[in-house]
Protein 1
Amino acid sequence: MRFISSTARLTALTCMAGYGFSQPAYDLLLEGGHVIDPKNDISAVRDVAIKDGRIAAVAAHLDPAAALKVVNLAGLYVTPGLVDIHVHVFTGTGERGSYAGDLSVYPDGFTFRAGVTTVADAGCAGWRNFEDFKDRIIDRSKTRVLAFLNIVGNGMRGGKFEDDLADMEAAPAAEMALRHKGLIVGFKTAHYNGPEWTPVEHAVEAGTIAKIPVMVDFGSDRRERPIAELLTKKLRPGDIYTHCYSGLRHELDESGNLNPGMWEGRKRGVIFDVGHGGGSFAWRVAVPALKQGFLPDSISTDLHVGSMNAGMKDMLNVMDKFLAMGVSVDDVIRRSTWNPAREIQHEELGNLSAGAPADVAVLSLETGRFGFTDMYGARLQATQKLVCEVTIRNGKVVYDLNGTTRPDWDKLPKNYTQTGDPRWDGITPQRRPATVPPARNTGK
Ligand SMILES: [Zn+2]
């Protein structure tokens, strides 16, 4: 059953009566939270039902008796699982000082605790090492890991590789992307120091063959290849300019006005992504840009070993920064779910439509005195902070900060061992019940 219409639900309930409630209509019912689902124009208190790893229904009231497990989320936000399209997760190779190695992080260690259920690696691997990345990380992670393939065949392994114009071939990159359709969601060009347009041009060529977008980290600022030309001539509509508030490539002019090329690029359909990172987000760029009305299309972290211990903490921290600049919770959620899902051509993600994969984030909005720092260590003080309470991936609870989905220990049987059910619980190990009775003293 992919999703349940009201008629189907009645049938399911009728069946339940006959089968002693062995087949509840829903595995999990999230009750009474404030649902923000920008794709479906929902920002209101709603119940969300999940069955077999998919969203079964979203409505003002769903019958709790039809669910195996009911969780009350009054006072919390319920959003699609967050989609972070700029991370670095090709770790485990042993290569020092490399994003195809020690600078990357294992996704599951950092995603669920921030409400993130889908990430896109931003070019750690190229066509030469993508299948190693897939084997080491993509196939082994609970997080949904997608990838922008570096136009550099060797991937993001330092200047010796990333400045090598001979290893930026469009054909083998496109071929690899077509072999892993849906998994490779775009091409990345990054960190290029030279004056040539070759990396951008070849990435766009590969993107045109494979019909997927290009994400650009525009590297060194060079007079020979100005940002306005990139945004108005070189990139296609749907291509993504990341690090858009770094200020490192004349995103603002000297009087603090947004580069007209940014506006013109946006008008053409070029996408602007945050990609905060360790060195790509400055208050002195972001605040004036937002004041001039230039919001990002997508919010992303540029998560890696360096950034996550510096100004960038995690996805929610980057979202908090936009709340702090006056963007509404609804608009921040849109830019962290439905917008990035569309940018990477995965429209089944980033929303809570019936039938969609049941990836969900449950967030609280705390008030207090908080500080948020940028790439230069400059602080902006604010009074709001999002906290991830519960994360659900494919219908299973995979993170639960305050035990919102769990029973109190002193209400359980004396020798309790298992407290969940594999149909909704992705956290506690599913132990087999003890089949051997304890040895009895027979007196022999
Ligand atoms: Zn990056």
Protein 2
Amino acid sequence: MTLASRYAGKTVLAVGAHADDVELAVGGTIAKMRRAGARVVMVVVSLPGDYALRSREAERAAAILGCELRVLMGDGARRIEDLKSYELVAMIDREVRELGPAAMLTHGATEIHRDHVLVHEACVSSQRLQPFDFFTYHPNFCRPVPVPFHPRAYVDITETMETKMRAIEAHQSQFKCRGIGIDVYRDIARLNGRMVGVQYAEGLDVSRMLLA
Ligand SMILES: [Zn+2]
């Protein structure tokens, strides 16, 4: 059974601290899951900066990937770090209770961005509500920084690589406007692909997975 068909007819939550985090790390994986018939909900905790603009970009990226989008924190001055940890856990819990996911993909514990770590910890807590497969994804950064991450599973995203790149390009304010190239994400996918003998892959760390 492929990872994509494993979740056909089921719901997958892809959780990121900010708009673009999910696309960068697992855009190819969730596009593939969606094509295989999974309901994929991209849960974005906050949209710092120009809320309206980033919201439009996130909507466009989600549409390109064929996934649903939910933004948990509305337009306001607060950032994730301003939330109490129980408030953030309650936000993630609400999504898990409503959607009953078969899998969750989110940030890992080793990221340099504090907001990413906070979201990781809240997602870890949400596992107490019900069993679901729990994966963490490659650390995100605009400019490469050495951060420990050890993939234990790889998803062949050769068929959705270009879709992933288009979804990343939708976040114009994060890349094009700041003069940051997005080729690094193709490089990472190519390197991960080499590890498993396919053209492009995304790496996942596996925290919990039921083999039935
Ligand atoms: Zn982020």
